[in-house]
Amino acid sequence: MLLEEKTLDNIMTEMKNTVKSDISVREGSLIDHALRGAAAEFEQAYIELWMTDRNGYAQTADREHLILRAKERGITPFPASNAVWKATFNINVSLGTRFSAGKLTYSCIAREEGTYRLQCEQAGIKGNKKQEEIFPIEFLEGFETGELIELLTPGRDEEDTETFRLRYLSLVSAAQAFGGNRAQYRQAMYEIAGVGACKIYRVRENIRRIKIYFLNSLYQVPDNSLVSEVQKIIDPIENQGDGEGSAPIFHIVDIFPCAQQTVNVEAEITIDTGYAWKELLPEIQLKIDEYFLELAKSWEKEVYLTIRILKINAAIASVEGIVDVQGTLLNSKSENLMLEENTIPVRGTVICRKEL
After folding, report:
1. Which of 267, 266, 278, 280 is nearest to 321 (CA)?
2. What domain count does the chain have?
3. pLDDT bucket at 355, cuts 50 / 70 / 90
4. Do 185 and 234 belong to one domain?
5. Domain housing 28
6. What is the radius of gyration, based on Cα positions, of the chain?
7. Claim to verify: residue 116 and residue 146 sit in the same structural domain
8. Strands 104-112 and 98-101, sheet pairing
9. 253 and 264 in one domain?
10. d(Cα 211, Cα 164) in Å, to the nearest integer?
């Protein structure tokens, strides 16, 4: 009998079957009372044994035991990280000055060429949303306006259990990360806050350098500051090949951001009675963005990404109020659009060429 089948009733049945047939074991009998307490203890013991068995395997362990098992291989869940924004103010701001916006607070951590870096003090993806107005927490003489203008490093939440489980299993099943192999570089990249996906290209006979392309944790093209930060961690420019970063000595590593290509969409769209194009456009744009995000998440495993007209039509048609979609063009061509290597799509204009 399987451990999960060792219930109170099943245990009672097994125990009563061992009693002589001339002794009453009906419910309420002396034997029934005598065995029931022991059966309850046995059931609890089997439950604990079942939990111990499940927690002994990475595929079924709970979070606490999965983390303990993964630590044996030096793998831990990614911690939550803080978003960093570029900001501007109408006055000079000192490092350490704190600001608030809604329920979030920010601290000034750097100044560069008339702009400032503000780090969200609350870790996680909630810091990635742009706040329209920010104000100093304490009085700041001369302050009138402040604005978050660009997300430099996206924040991320602590890695959830199932995502961590999949990553652990994939790392264990793949080659062991050591000595500058592909697994080690991939592990080093994912441990950097703000990195969401990467591709690693080996040294070639005519190119004696390792190339790594990556996307940020929002699966978007990373900005220059994040690219510089990743380069510094993996193989600092000023000491390339010296083993000063995560890359082993003699490994020269160049870090590159993915490129992006704007995709303009035109189509003949049949709109249901009672709806207008201007009202439907924002939802259509959102659906196309969701499709492009899905593609960006698959970039790591694909050589080239292909924008398919069928998928664009499906995204548009999924919006309530759209009856039909025909004659779709991608960048003025009536065919699927294959992007260049290490390129992800971004939505451009969406035009209803003929509202039917």
Report:
1. 280
2. 4
3. low
4. yes
5. 3-54
6. 29
7. yes
8. antiparallel
9. no
10. 26
pLDDT given at position 247: 92
Number of alpha carbons in the 13 Å side-chain half-sphere of residue 65: 12
- pLDDT at residue 35, rounded to an integer: 82
Closest-CA residue to 191 (of 35, 81, 322): 81
Helical (H) or strand (E) element with 140? none
Q: Check residue 124 and report its DSSP letter.
A: S
Q: Is residue 132 located within the same domain as residue 180?
A: no
Beta bridge partners of residue 153, listed in sequence order: 84
Predicted confidence (pLDDT) at residue 298 exceeds the cutoff of 90: yes
Do residues 97 and 134 both lie within one domain?
Answer: yes
- 162 assigned to some structural domain: no
4-10: long-range contacts at Cβ-Cβ below 8 A with a sequence spacing of 24 or more?
A: 4/50, 6/42, 6/43, 6/46, 6/50, 7/43, 8/36, 8/39, 8/40, 8/43
Which are the contacts of 143, defined by CB distance < 8 A and separation ≥ 6?
89, 90, 91, 135, 136
The answer to whether position 75 is within a domain reads: no
Span 138-151, average pLDDT: 92
Q: Do 130 and 105 share a structural domain?
A: yes
Question: Which band of pLDDT confidence, cut at 50, 70 and 90, is reported for residue 354?
Answer: low
Tens of pLDDT along 207-229?
789 999 999 999 999 999 999 99
The answer to the question of residue 61 being in a domain is no
Q: Token digits for 335?
A: 């065919």
> What residues contact residue 114 under an 8 Å CB cut-off, 6+ apart?
88
Q: What is the DSSP letter of 243?
A: T
- Mean per-residue pLDDT of the chain: 90
Asked if residue 221 belongs to a domain, the reply is yes
Domain final residue, candidates 223, 257, 291: 257
Q: How many CB atoms lie within 10 A of CB 70?
A: 21
Alpha carbons within 13 A on the beta-carbon side of 229: 17
Q: State the burial class of residue 248 (Cβ atoms within 10 Å of its Cβ: 0-12, 13-18, 19+).
A: middle
pLDDT, one tens digit per residue, over 163-180 is 999 888 887 776 566 778
In terms of domains, do 273 and 349 share one? yes
Confidence (pTM): 0.72
**Co-location of 281 and 347 in the same domain:** yes
Query: Are the beta carbons of 70 and 58 closer than 8 angstroms?
Result: yes
